[in-house]
Request: fold
Amino acid sequence: MIRATAAEGQFLGVDWGSFVVVFVVAFVAAVAVVGFYSLGLRLLSLGPSPKQRPMPATLGGWVCIGIGAAAVLYGIYLIIPQFHS
Amino acid sequence: MEVLVTVLLVIVVALVFDFTNGFHDTANAMATSVATGALKPRVAVTISAVLNLAGAFLSTEVAKTISGGIINEGENGVDITPIMIFAGLVGAVLWNLTTWYLGLPSSSTHALFGGLIGAAIIGAGFNAVNFGVVLTNVLIPALLSPLVAGAVALVATYAAYRLTQQAKARGSDAGFRHGQTVSASLVSLAHGTNDAQKTMGVITLTLISAGYQDSGSGPQFWVILSCGFAIALGTYLGGWRIMRTVGKKITDIHAPQGFAAETSSAATILISSHLGFALSTTQVTSGAVVGAGLGKKLATVHWGIVGRIATGWLVTLPAAALVGGLAAWAASSSIAGLVIVIVLALAAGLGLVLLARRHPVTHENVNEEAEKSEDAAGSDGDDDHLAAQTTAAQTGAARTTGEDA
Reply:
């Protein structure tokens, strides 16, 4: 969103296109991760007790949590420059 | 000889700045986890310290300019002298200590920029500062990034509560607390790769400009090591005062909100860094906490404290600039002036620390919200008031606190 020289789509010197990109991507990423994790927790909560949880719920629940974990790993990948410089 | 002394002063103050940066920003990643009990306070700051230290070593990008374009450096512009850097850092450190004392989260980066701006204006006039860049790199992101993070956190929190039946599904609260640990660690790691670099950049560029290092070379190992340790130490000692504000005073944070807030912060910070724009971790996480507060039904956000935080952000640049400018004016006038600046800065810093001990916030009481502490009653955020406070702190002036219980 910030560029040193003016470019297309600038107003007040701010690159609004990039701002929108950050907003949209952060929105999708965060809501998706939180959503999948929450869904996973919900699935894992089904059944009268953890030991009596239906198999599909257990499977689905851990898959959803796994998606959240994958997102975290991707985040680590983004953070550590050695991985993608 | 004089150059060596000034360079040494810069290194010392830069490391102190890094230290204050550490205890300021430990709250960003860990406040919500400490508030919900996902992590015990000392465990939280230990994790954060280790990750910040690791982050300092992981990222090796060297800053090309000390001020990121805010000050017209180089050939056609201003020569940033070590004295100016010293004065700018003094301004930044005192602002960090003041906001710590008041328990207000504030951007250390902006404090650094403010100090440098003040020092540059005194040293080289108003033309030294590129106010356009200040607008686009500092002011507008300060406005937008908390809004973005807040909006994202709001929706994420709403989703978290909806999907788990208002967090009443069995095991969901514990599950969210585990999630918080992970997302908070991610924010700490991201912070570590970003913030230690600033101080390394300042020290390295000072060494280069004073001729102790070749132009274009990277930070030396001892610089990386000392900056990493300074920020890790500050992180570990913990900005409990700020942590209490972010974790408790803005809104009463629960595990699903904490998880949503930290995940939103992590996403916003990572994506913008990846695209090449640095955002203030403090502003993003504070915005996310407000958003998470709004996303939960029947949660209250204490807008009074949000207003004080926002005021603090607005005042950061001018206040740090004021102190930085004063320090630059005095320090560059004569050796005596330099000594006076050092003494006054030490006194002000010590004064703030001593004042803080009157109502200490520690890992033991960080989760207590109700306390007649000065940060609820005190400063109105006026920068003259705060500047006076920093220089008069040792006389214990300017306190309007209520009766001690």
Remarks:
- The interface with chain B takes residues 1-4, 12-14, 18-19, 21-23, 25-27, 29-31, 33-35, 37-42, 44-45, 50, 68, 72, 75-76, 78-82 of chain A (CB under 8 Å).
- Chain A is about 65% helix and 5% strand.
